[in-house]
Structure formats: structure tokens, C-alpha cells
Design goal:
The chain is built from eight helices and no strands. By secondary structure, the protein is mainly alpha-helical. Helix 1 runs antiparallel to helix 2 and helix 5 runs parallel beside helix 7.
Length: about 190
């Protein structure tokens, strides 16, 4: 039997807003609710309306999934911990007189641009009202921050004449964030496919 037009429209909104697996899970539940109302003797139109009413507005359902998105949670954790990691690096770079290090200006510029773009992406993911936006922005932000952490650790290890305890602390903070991003990346970012 073909889906009722209300159920089909609901499903279309879900497919447009959510990853296929989530959209199908919600659509399956909606179809079951519709079938339940049909078994209770409601007409096809009344059963479809009752099922849609039970589930709520499709866009509201998609927004609820976006608010609880693993990518959004990961982004919020990165926002909360970012100032700590950044502060560790700021102290280490100032104490180590980083402006005297033999790092090309192009590398400094590239790191700065990557940092700004990553922060914007993480902020976008943390505030996104759409699931796919949170997933994509979270993926970009996590990747950018991981690149920055790896680059910072590598630069300190290979170019700094004498690594002080502040640089070691900053490298440890970056390593902790790398571990978090690596562990969170699977569940947080895989939902967007």
C-alpha cells in the first residue's frame, strides 16, 4: 500500500534534513503509528493526521535531532576547552619568545588562518539548528583543530632551541584534545553520512 501523502511529505522533510538512517528510523515509527491508527478503525486521512500529530512537526523533530547531534556536543566541548589549550600555548609561546623561532611567516599565517577557520566551523557546529550543518561544520572544525595541534606539537619539537615546561604543558593539552577529537570523531561525524 502506498504511503499517505501526509506521511510522504513528513518523510520527505526528514530525508532533506537528517542523515538517511535517522530519517528512516523516524519514518518507520511514523508508519507504525499510522498503521496502529488504521487498525483502530480510523480512515486513511484521519490515521495519517493522528500519526503526524503524535510525532509532531517534521521540522521540529529534525531540529530536536540537530540539538542533540553528537557533532554539536563535540563542538561545544571543544569551545569549552579551547581557551584552556589556547592559553597554554599562549603562555608557552610568549615564555619561549616564539617570535624569534625559525618558523617561516607563511607557516605562521597558515596556522593563524586555519585556527580562525576552525573556530568559526566549531562555533557554527555548536549553534547549528540543522543536523547536516552541525555534522559538516563539526567535521571541518575538528579536522582543523587536529591539524593545528599536530602542527604546534611538531613545530615545538623540531624548531624550538630549548623546550620549557610551559611548551610541554601546551603539548600535553594539545595531545589531550587530539585524543578527544579522535575518539569523538567516529560517533560525532559519522552520523552525517
Amino acid at each position: 500500500m502506498a504511503e499517505h501523502r501526509l506521511i510522504q511529505r513528513y518523510h520527505d522533510v526528514l530525508r532533506a534534513e537528517l542523515p538517511a538512517q535517522l530519517a528512516e528510523e523516524v519514518a518507520d515509527g511514523l508508519a507504525e503509528a499510522n498503521a496502529k491508527y488504521l487498525r483502530h478503525g480510523l480512515s486513511q486521512d484521519d490515521a495519517a493526521q493522528a500519526a503526524v500529530a503524535e510525532f509532531g512537526d517534521a521540522r521540529a523533530v529534525a531540529e530536536a535531532f540537530a540539538r542533540s547531534s553528537p557533532a554539536r556536543r563535540t563542538a561545544r566541548t571543544l569551545i569549552a576547552t579551547g581557551p584552556i589549550v589556547g592559553g597554554c600555548w599562549a603562555f608557552a609561546l610568549i615564555a619561549g619568545r616564539a617570535w624569534d623561532w625559525p618558523v617561516p611567516n607563511a607557516a605562521r599565517l597558515l596556522l593563524g588562518v586555519t585556527l580562525i577557520a576552525s573556530v568559526i566551523a566549531v562555533l557554527t557546529a555548536a549553534m547549528a539548528c540543522r543536523y547536516r550543518v552541525a555534522q559538516r561544520a563539526g567535521s571541518v572544525g575538528c579536522t582543523g583543530l587536529a591539524l593545528i595541534d599536530v602542527s604546534a606539537i611538531t613545530l615545538v619539537a623540531t624548531t624550538v632551541p630549548s623546550v620549557g615546561w610551559l611548551a610541554v604543558l601546551a603539548a600535553c593539552a594539545s595531545t589531550a584534545r587530539l585524543i578527544f577529537v579522535t575518539r569523538a570523531a567516529g560517533p560525532a561525524l559519522a552520523g552525517g553520512r
